[in-house]
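Retro notes
What went well: the complex prediction finally ran end to end.
Inputs used:
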Amino acid sequence: MSSPAKAAPSISTAVRAVLRRAAEVYRDSPATALQLRDQLDRLDEPLRVAVAGKVKAGKSTLLNALVGEQIAPTDAGECTRVITWYRDAPSPRVTLMPHRGAPRQLPLTRADGRLEFDLGGSAPDDVDRLLVDWPSHGLRTTTLIDTPGIASLSAHISARAIALLAPEDRPSDADAVIYLMRHLHATDVRFLESFYDQVGAPAAVVNTVAVLSRADEIGASRLDAMVSARQIARRYRTEPKVRRVCQTVVAVAGLLAQTARTLRQVEFSALCELAQTSRSELDALLLSADRFTAPQAHPTLPAQTRGALVERFGLFGLRLATTLIRQGHREPAGLTQELVRRSGLDELRTVLATQFTERRDVLKARSALLLVDRALREEPCSEAHQLAGEVERILAGAHEFRELRLLAELRAPDVALPPDARSDAERLLGGHGTPTPSRLGLEPDADRAALREAAIAALARWQRRAESPLSDRTASERARVVVRSCEGMLARLAQDQADS
Ligand SMILES: Nc1nc2c(ncn2[C@@H]2O[C@H](COP(=O)(O)OP(=O)(O)OP(=O)(O)O)[C@@H](O)[C@H]2O)c(=O)[nH]1
Ligand SMILES: [Mg+2]
């Protein structure tokens, strides 16, 4: 009986071995050895995703929306000026990590549904970061890192955010980035390019998703604001300079999403009361926040309640919520679901799942190899040559990396591929999700025969392209990467059949 072919080690196994070896090689260089050992631990931890963008882009609000709780401070307090990590843990705890000195615990309180903590006398400049342990399902696969606004009033603070995301002296602490922008601005593109240009980074573009944030404010918070925002996001997605720096752009009304996911019964009752006001009166009231909160503006709802409502929902959220209640959403759970859907949060979560969560092993491996590569360049040593060879072998050999690199290349404006072939390749390479049905453009529950048929057709399509005399060398090589992805799918389908 022939022995089964030895399976290639998974990318995580190969990277783990290289990290161990590198930690051994650099054992006399304590700082580097420590970074390498940390990186080893990171392979078993949740993916680290930073939320970045300019001041007041809505970063902390969106983080709360993603977690489904108000844990990140959103007003102008000193904590918004400090990098803060939110990670899942059995019990809540806030730890302050100073630049110098020992970490210390900070007291935390909950007030009005929000988590509150302060720096306990430390100046923001003295704080390296805050670490918030918070039991949350939303943080199980991903640790979220809230960053101070870039290009903020204090150059120092924005420098800190940039150092976290694109540090010069070491690879980034974050494996992936959600970048918020209210409009597309040259500084946003420049900032994103700084990830893209990281030395040695295989396909940095694949670890960035852009969000058109505070999307409800587009078009004066009219009821169709999200329709316009989605159109703008779609246009950005096709712009070459945007495609070059991020995977995709999603429009999200973060405030509405946050509030919907933390909706309270008293708020729901107040919305129902508002919805009973005649449409013309309500439209007039909701023309501006000042009108809506004026002392005698509403016969039954006190000004204070209205003030709280507009702060939590925004004018757009109030217009939308009252309209939905009028249309028959009489239960808080149903209203929450519809508001979250319309806020764009569901779409963002799907994008994060396909772009980040499903690819977490590759993204973490990428961070790890960047670290080893940097150590080798900055501290050359006698074993460097061999170690560099191992890094190179993983980068060149792991098909996952080839897929990432090609996905990034396909985003460049000058790719010599017809648009339909380009989008076919993007899908097959896992650009819209790595499970086989997503790659083949079929429903998640498609049967095996349909999947096989589609994979065989795709394989033939890309084999023809790889062998076509019309394809130059680069085009053939790219086509072969897609061929390999199709072969991988067929092998997995055959394996599934054998297992069942
Ligand atoms: N209308 C509307 N307002 C929003 C939205 N997201 C955030 N805001 C408001 O914008 C302000 C800033 O929001 P934050 O979430 O603190 O923004 P940030 O980017 O974390 O701000 P810094 O950390 O200070 O840079 C707050 O008053 C939020 O209520 C949104 O989607 N729509
Ligand atoms: Mg903030």
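What we learned: The chain has three domains: 48-257+345-357, 258-343, 415-499.
What to try next: split runs per interface for comparison.
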